[in-house]
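ok so heres the complex, two chains, lmk if somethin looks off
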Amino acid sequence: MADKDDKRPDHDDQGKGRARGVEIHDARAPSRRNFLKSVGATSLAAATAPAWARVGYVNHDEQEPQDKRADEGEAPAKGTQRITLNVNGQAHTLDVTPNMVLLDVLRHQLALTGTKKGCDIGQCGACTVHVNGVSINSCLSLAVMHDGDEVTTVEGLGQNGKLHPIQQAFLDHDAYQCGYCTPGQMMSAVAILNDAEVASDDAAVREAMSGNICRCGAYKNILSAIQTARKNV
Amino acid sequence: MSDNIIGAAKPRIDGPLKLTGLAKYSSDNLLDDMVYAYGVFSSIASGEVTNIDLSVAQQSPGVIDIFHHDHFPQLFRTPSSMEQENKVDEERLPFEDNQVHYAGQFVALVVADSFENARAAAYKVKVDYKTSPVLANLAQAVKVNGTQLHQDSRNSRGDPEPAFQSAQHKIDFTYVTPVETHNPMEMHATVAAWSGDKLTMYDTTQGVVNARNVYAKVFGLSPDRVEVITPFLGSGFGSKLWPWPHAIAAAAAAREVGRPVQLVVPRQEMFTTTGHRPETSQRLRLATDDDGRLVSLRHESISTTSTIDQGNNPYVESCGKMTQGLYSCENLLVTHSTTGTNRGTPTSMRAPGAAPGLFALESAMDEMAIEAGLDPLEFRRRNYADSDESKGLPWSSNKLREAYDQAAEKFGWSKRNSEIGSMRDGNEIVGWGMATCNWEAIRRPCDARVSLRADGTAYASCATQDIGTGTYTIVAQAVSQVTGLPLEKIEVELGDSSYPSGPISGGSWATATALPAVAAAARKALEELKSYAVSERGAFVGAKADDLSIENGQLKSADGKTVAFAEVLKQRKLASADGEAHTGGAPTDQYAFRSFGAHFVEVRWDQGISNLRVSRVVSAIDVGRAVNTLTSRNQVEGAIVMGVGMALFEQTEYDHRNGRPVNNNYAEYLVPVHADQPEVDVILLDYPDYKFNEFGARGIGEIGITGLAAAVANAVYHATGKRIRELPITMDKLMDDVPQAQQA
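and the predicted structre for the whole thing:
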């Protein structure tokens, strides 16, 4: 029942987060000002125009997401805003409408379907990704707010065809059943293991992981996997 | 290899796909030219649609079409037969008419060029309704319409009433369980694509064969023209056993707009239009003699159905099914009744019948033990059933007494002080309770195919599913056991209706059903391989096939010569040796097949703030042979977690004035999270049940949740002195002088 965001000691109203002493943009808690700035007054105005979202996706074709990237020279289509998302180390320039959510852009436009939608309203944690090193619910974040951001998804966890230590630990400990919440569990786990403010005891890890629901109930094995991976991260 | 692969703890062979995000779930399919559908859902629970105003929605960006009861193709209902494998629970087709039976029913469906546009337009559809009186819950429905008794599930023996009247000790209580919602993490989803008159469905289903047959009936097609594909499922817990209206709506819309359609049911509507465990009210009357032996046992239950189905073969929550045979008692009566409410159609949810049924029975057993002055464990031992008295058949295997022994020993039950509230630890009062768990073992006919391939690998396929239970891995284990090939050389494909016909993933059937067929197919493939080996140009030309044995992926002759399977095939320039097999059900006329076990639960109650938690669970489970102890244990542990949810949190609440669900989301319908995890210790007894199948496996998905809520309730009574007969055991129910919410 615990909301992981509320448990975070570095959460504040200004929408600024602190991770290991470094001041960074806190993607979890955008302020109203940041939101308006990122959406842009023109986009908001355009949102009322009937044609604003007819444009659809720039990169609809799953096969060649790179080639049909919005051309740097061309202006973005009316009602859309051009953003650059750096996902798993790769830059993607996209034209998005203001109502496009980061989760849906990752899944539908970039065909990165490893990140899952479990509730679409920030209650289950299945859509957890890292934005600039901070874990967020990508279903609660508009794509236009992430221009220039570094996004890491489950597809970016492993390196050079090798499983990340958390993935290996999940495999060894059978820390899943159906696998649907698993990407989100692992993204939260990695964030927790990198967060000096989350203690390493079992109770602290359970509390910190409580924003990620596993309906199969593999919590015991997930905890074992996280505590094992701790030694290898 | 072949000696110990069955019963080993093996990591899942499909694990890397799930861990890297490459496992494809239904809504991960992004087809060329695909468009998106989003539903408009009824905001009333009873009445009719009088007008649908599309004027604003149709102007919304990207809209392609909007379907509703006046604009939807003519479809056919499925006969909904379990035997024909074309079952649904909600037989009414979407948009069949303008009638509204429950809140959350589809009243329109928007198709647009993007998910965002479909959703935005759906919000702009304006629907007018004429509201009718609502039956919002069991009590209202019984008051207005009474109940319907289901004779086919009635079970009785002896004469319970006089035995009850003349008994020394007796109890008579009613236990209530609420609507629970499955809430698998993956929302129900369908990607429907037509190619001419062939329909392909990337569908969230626990039964690709049944789903295929349903869609064939609904669209008037030969089953050959429909393919249902579900390689991965974000679990189902029963809610994805039988197709629901959204899947049919998506397929119809795809045909109408001439493009593939993706439809995902929003989380909120998974509380309304994709099934739920119904509300139950169960009257338990038990009586014992002076020795603490049951002389009369009656379990009479009412469960809710939808007004759509009531009177037409509705879903019945079979609460008393386990009660019929779990304990020895000469005089017994089990009945099931239903009453129709304005809720969506209910369906099977993990351990259907047994989960609410054993909450009632095992709570009553605790109350009866206390009434008779006996330790609850000792009371159950005295009423152990040597045979299934409801069927007059011997058990194939029943290790319940050993389960009691092992779990009690590990839990430390002998140290229990039976006095209420007597065990303290700091601010907390510790309560200890126990309950029996029980589930029927079922095995159905099944087909499978196995190929031994020239590249040295083996391939197995079956149209069953892996819904998170580990089926991919245990199928590979079965092939490994027969062929001696290591798991990494075995490829398994499941979840496609075009494969040999396999079972639904439900009722704990899949393992016991699929593995014998897979093993038989593997043996047939070996026979074919041997025939190649002994033929002209074969590796063992001149030898007799029967003289060849199998050793670690090789054929071996009597004189000790070994040749790898792959070599045998290469020598004949063949791609593979193939086997297909059909296996039947279990010998249910000779034995009663059930799994048994026991839960021992510790709760901690902080009286000062009325804080209750489950702190420790020790369970001993006898499911015959656990084929993979890593995934099997995980199944039981997960079922215990869901049982904790059932005991303490889970309840779909409806406004009693209008029948609308009020907590239809993950923040208000509480399920256990990491922080709720108790210390769990699962003991898997290991008594292979070879009367059931060659692997001795009876299946494991359901049993862990049965009895758990009762064990918690019994522990809560031990800690607090409060007997909670209405789930969930929320903290308010443990406080003194707190007025309980009234259900009008």
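quick notes: The mean pLDDT of chain A is 79. thats all i got rn
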